[in-house]
From TrEMBL:
A cellular component annotation (GO) from this entry: protein phosphatase type 1 complex
Name the record gives this protein: Protein phosphatase 1 regulatory subunit
Stretches assigned to the CBM21 domain: 153-262
Role description: Acts as a glycogen-targeting subunit for PP1. PP1 is involved in glycogen metabolism and contributes to the activation of glycogen synthase leading to an increase in glycogen synthesis.
Lineage: superkingdom: Eukaryota
Region (Disordered) residue spans: 1-78
């Protein structure tokens, strides 16, 4: 009984070596159908960055160093690249965290005048237990608030427009006017003068809301600025109120005398406790 030819196992030669296994990145070379491509060098791999970063507890660098760093980064950036922002801290660069400025005798820091005056007031209050009295020049109405006068409702029903009250402040003169709701379309304005009616100006009042029973009346608010020269003693402001409705025109000029305000000296009393605690507002 004959046996077929048997294959003999030939051991490798003593001087030969088994080829080293190829890396996974070069496995494409074994595929004959595809074109072999070279392996990527290790330098092409993206750099690793730490997951957690620790930030120094210090103040940022000075504006001069930040501007220099920004200029250097802008010049090094090429077209098409993305600019990266870096933050450096003073302690990381070996610098001091605080900057001390030493003033000489001829380089005293300039302090605003209103701060010095307030400090002088506080020094006077420290030596006195009484209230401090100031004298200010401001515009004061020459009339009592019309809304608090008796017969205001009857006067409003007769002339259809009446001034309620006036308030003076640093921003100017403001007040309110009450009119009878004769029609939906209405216009209220205040005509005023600083020169005794040689020249005049007008300020349009704005509707604030209804008033009276069942909206029978409306309230308008007005305001106009005051020039600085009117804060001299004796200066006066005159004004009157005009009301246009249903094709007619009505006026409230304080019974033909006009409403006026005069600049007078006004005494202001300030408690000692408020003056001592108000210095912080001027820092």
């Amino acid at each position: 009984m004959s046996r077929g030819p048997s294959s003999a196992v030939v051991p490798p030669a003593l001087g030969s070596r088994r080829p080293a296994p190829r890396s996974l990145s070069c496995i494409s070379e074994l595929d004959g159908a595809r074109e072999p491509r070279p392996c990527r060098p290790p330098a092409c791999d993206p750099g690793l960055r730490p997951i957690m970063q620790r930030r120094a507890r210090s103040l940022p660098s000075s504006p001069e160093r930040r501007s220099k760093a920004a200029g250097a980064a802008g010049s090094a950036c090429r077209p098409g690249c993305q600019r990266q922002h870096r933050v450096r801290f003073a302690d990381a660069l070996g610098l001091e965290l605080a900057e001390v400025k030493v003033f000489n005798a001829g380089e005293d820091p300039s302090v605003p005048l209103h701060v010095l005056s307030r400090l002088a007031v506080d020094s006077d209050l420290c030596c006195s237990s009484q209230e401090l009295e100031f004298t200010l020049q401001c515009l004061v109405p020459d009339f009592a608030p019309p809304v608090e006068a008796p017969g205001f409702a009857e006067r409003l029903a007769q002339q259809l427009v009446c001034l309620e009250r006036v308030t003076c402040s640093d921003l100017g003169i403001s007040g309110t006017v009450r009119v009878r709701n004769v029609a939906f379309e209405k216009q209220v304005a205040v005509r005023y003068t600083f020169s005794g009616w040689r020249t005049a100006h007008e300020a349009v009042a704005r509707w604030r809301g209804p008033a009276g029973a069942q909206g029978a009346e409306d309230v308008f608010a007005f305001g106009f600025p005051v020039p600085p020269f009117l804060l001299e003693l004796g200066s006066r402001v005159h004004f009157a109120v005009r009301y246009r409705v249903a094709g007619a025109e009505y006026w409230d000029n304080n019974h033909g005398q006009d409403y006026s305000l005069t600049c007078r000296s006004h005494a202001l009393h300030m408690p000692r406790g408020e003056c001592e605690e108000s210095w912080i507002h001027f820092i």
